Amino acid sequence: MAKIFLILGSSFAGLAVAIGAFGAHALKTALEATNRLETFETAVKYQFYHALALLFLGLLMTKFDHRMFTWSGYGFVAGIILFSGSLYILSLSGITKWGAVTPLGGVAFLIGWITLIIGITKSVN
After folding, report:
1. Contacts of 106 (CB under 8 A, 6+ apart)
2. For labelling, which of 54, 55, 76, 83 has a CA lying 20 to 30 Å from the CA of 67?
3. What are the residue ranges in the chain where pLDDT is below 50?
């Protein structure tokens, strides 16, 4: 799983850079006109933060083995998809119902961080 999380972390980080640049240049005027630029930027930031967390986790898993690390990675991936994904859709489409999905992504992020803490306390001396 370490390799998968390293690949996913790298992919999500690269996508965050590309999406952020696209939003800052091609979509900025449209996002500002609908007052959704800040929402879009929040999605990019959280995607990038958790992509870095996946990279850290993947490296940690090459040295330490604990099943909680796998759950942590699942939480980060689910969080990126649900939290950032719903904010991207909301900011681009204006369909506010997608905002109901965002907290589920936040919970997934929290599960990722909590299981990371548990994994570290149980496997790292």
Report:
1. 79, 83
2. 83
3. none
